[in-house]
Specification:
With 148 residues, this protein is an alpha+beta fold. The protein has one domain (28-145): Fusion Protein Consisting Of Minor Coat Protein, Glycine Rich Linker, Tola, And A His Tag, Chain: A, Domain 2 (2-Layer Sandwich), CATH 3.30.1150. 33% of the residues lie in helices and 24% in strands. The protein is built from 4 helices and 5 strands; from the N terminus they run H-E-H-H-E-E-H-E-E. It has helices spanning 2-17, 56-71, 76-80, 109-120, and strands at 33-35, 85-93, 99-105, 128-130, 133-145.
């Protein structure tokens, strides 16, 4: 009994202090959200279809960066007020392959809104797959707004 209690206590301690949220219980695969590093198959960005499995992440990063560069526009209000800063963009590629649940932290509200515009414009993708089922995949991308 002491051994079981110790194992349970150890498990709770590990899950309570880990950076990842652990879900225990029965969950619908449509509501399950995994970090991109834990899914068996990452979402596939348009233009990355047919890429070797080991190259999917590299292609995804390249396409995301191209998208950010293409849609990035330094807000004029931020430019005139000399507003700079870093924002953290958290978003999910849902089971339909659409961008969902965009959350942006940090910096000034003008910069947060500019970042939101970039990520709302992401195209539909093939959803991530885990254990044979489409799953929601969570991403975090930092953006630095710097005047030069």
């Amino acid at each position: 009994m002491k051994k079981i209690f110790f194992l349970l206590l150890s498990f709770l301690t590990i899950t309570c202090f880990s950076q990842e949220e652990t879900v225990i219980g029965i969950v619908d695969s449509n509501s399950l959200e995994l970090p991109f590093a834990e899914v068996e198959q990452m979402p596939i960005f348009q233009g990355c279809e047919g890429v070797k499995e080991e190259e999917i992440l590299k292609c995804f990063k390249t396409k995301i960066n191209q998208h950010i560069v293409k849609h990035f526009k330094y807000p004029e209000d931020a430019r005139t007020q000399n507003i700079e800063g870093k924002v953290m963009v958290h978003f999910t590629i849902n089971t339909e392959g659409e961008v969902d649940n965009i959350q942006i932290l940090g910096a000034h509200s003008i910069l947060r809104q500019a970042a939101r515009h970039i990520f709302e414009a992401l195209p539909k993708m093939e959803p991530g797959i885990h254990e044979g089922e489409p799953v929601n995949v969570r991403f975090t991308i930092p953006l630095n707004f710097k005047l030069t």
